[in-house]
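Model it.
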Amino acid sequence: MKSTITYVVLLFLIISTQKGIAQETENYEIKIEQLKKEKAQITTQEKEALKRALVKINEDLDSGKITELEAQQAKKAMAEKHALNIENRIAIIDNEIALLERNNGDVKVIDSVGYETRIVIGYGNKDDGESRIFGVKVDKNKSKVNDKYDRRTYSDAVFAIGLNNTIIEGQSLEDSPYKIGGSRFFEMGWEWRTRVFKNTNFLRFNYGFAFQFNGLKPKDNQYFVNNNGQIELEEFTYNLDKSKLRTDNLVFPLHLEFGPSKVKKTEDKIRYNVHNMFVFGIGGYAGFNLGTRQKLKYEIDGEKVKDKLKRTYNTSNFIYGLSAYVGVGGTQLYVKYDLNPLFKDALVEQRNISLGLRFDL
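Modeled.
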């Protein structure tokens, strides 16, 4: 699961760079030097790949999976493949270097919708009002037809991380059976921010979708069991190195967002920017439980055991709750509270609560 979360986080970070990368054409020489270094490594990389492929072919030959003739044919095919790889990859880099040198790093193309796209290299101020994707600057001012004068909706990747626990009926959070520091949550998704009024950006609707991963780690060597439909904590037979229950949810949040913004007006457009401005949002979310699983780690006679138990654990299928955030710019303090009980038909109800940091990218 950690690798899955890491992959998705990296994916959202990559998508969000379109709002944070700005560049200057005079730095194209740095890009050319990088390309030359990559070019010098191509032959070595392909030779190493060929060497690994030949080792695998020899292993298949020794084990009897292929014949001597098949092995010779496979080796010849692999050698031809990597020779062509070297030739093609070097040609691609040579062409890219030539293109950058010929245009001094300022390369313009016209895309299918009539935007002028400028490819420039370097870093700079991200608040210049232009859109960039992986260093590609999309100058929509060149296309009057496709560029809106007043854009009322903006979008961002968003993720949050922090502490997780439950509010249990009839007891305080201090008496929680779950570890305060060990129980955590993670949330990631995409949001749209739409201005409510025509001539002011002080009030916005903030809406979208998010995946929530809520974890609970019981104290005192306990784990979750299903006793005739009642989900309860019991002491485990062996000493637990780890005991964790995780619920995975897909939710659709909706917030009313308040806060000032910067206004940039030109003859062609008007834009509102909330970067480094105070922001406060309050609202809620609703969605579905995608799955529940329990993970146990322990030892039996010196042998390490890992159990991953995917069960319903009688958790609520429909998720809904309240949430709020407050902060400056893209970093906010974030709290969410499930109104639905964690476990259905429980004699003593408990509801999930989370506190952490939220980031707009």
